[in-house]
Amino acid sequence: MKLYVKNPIVLALFCVMAGMFMTVSFLETPMKFQVQGMTLPVALELGKLMFAISTNIQAILLILIVISMLMSRSVYTKVDFSIISILIFILLLEKFWMLPVLDERVDLLLSGKSLSPTPLHDYFIDAEITKAIMITAAIFFQFKKAI
Questions:
Q1: SS3 for 5?
Q2: What share of the chain has pLDDT > 90, as a percent?
Q3: What Rg value do the Cα atoms of the chain yield, rounded?
Q4: Helix axes 40-71, 99-110, angle to 10 degrees
């Protein structure tokens, strides 16, 4: 069975996105809390900064991916466009709802206020896991059997 890549630019952009996103979300984020001498306030501020930068880079990469997919749209299926739509939806939820609310909670915690637990952090983790699955699927679907 021979495979070919639908669009090497899209594949490369998805791979860059996967590497950057998974490093920040699943490696850097939990590890910063393990560093000796790093205080909770510093770790929380670093988290705010890293996720803000990460979501901006992801947005740029998704825009470039959509443009590249549209330029070679004949090789893409509804599944491909569904995956990219889900990724865009999740990123919009994170950028304009989840992260602003979580950032506000961090600011309140850092100012000394005690807060009751919220399920929003769990929703954010679920969104990140879903994004990881969708990006992995998108990479997989960049390959097509040769006819």
A1: strand
A2: 89
A3: 18
A4: 170
DSSP 73: G
- Please state, as a whole number, how many other Cβ atoms lie within 10 Å of the Cβ of residue 76: 19
pLDDT value at position 29?
87
- Other CB atoms within a 10 A radius of the CB of residue 56 amount to 12
pLDDT, tens digit (0-9, with 9 covering 90-100), for 102-145:
999 999 999 999 999 999 999 999 999 999 999 999 999 999 98
The angle that helices 78-93 and 120-140 make with each other, rounded to 10 degrees, is 150
Helices (H), the chain: 8-23, 29-32, 40-71, 78-93, 99-110, 120-140
Please choose, from the candidates 94, 84, 92, the residue with its C-alpha nearest in 3D space to the C-alpha of residue 125: 94
Angstrom distance (rounded) from CA 98 to CA 108: 15
Contact yes or no for 102/54 (Cβ under 8 A) = no
